[in-house]
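Work Package 3 (structural annotation) set out to generate three-dimensional models for the target panel prioritized at the project kickoff. During this period the team completed the workflow that converts sequence records into discrete structure tokens, so that structures can be stored uniformly alongside our sequence database. As a representative example, we reproduce one entry of 118 residues exactly as it appears in the project archive.
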Amino acid sequence: MGISRYVPRSPHLLGGGSMSLMIAITAVVSGLFHVVLFSSTVLLGASGIVFMMIVLSSVAGMKDGKIPLTLILVIIIYLGGEILSVGSKDGIAHISHILGGICGAAFGLPRRRRLINF
């Protein structure tokens, strides 16, 4: 459900090939991070990619170089909650969510002019 909320908007803004590359890079970054630091755990799901798309969609709302309220709220509510949950024993890979958000910002901020002028 999470990905379907953000995918329809993003490929039209960036192109399907770019979106596929962003998904692949986010998955590799999350996977390598977990292999290096948490080799005894297993990753399952695409929640990091969903967080990447949430932040990417929020960055798409930038106009005239002003940071949109949605981006601030996403960072505070979603990523802030994940940062506070790191280390909890709930079986959720909170680090993947954080890395997905960082990847979304890293992909979206350099492309914001292209996102705005669409």
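The two ends are 26 Å apart (CA to CA).
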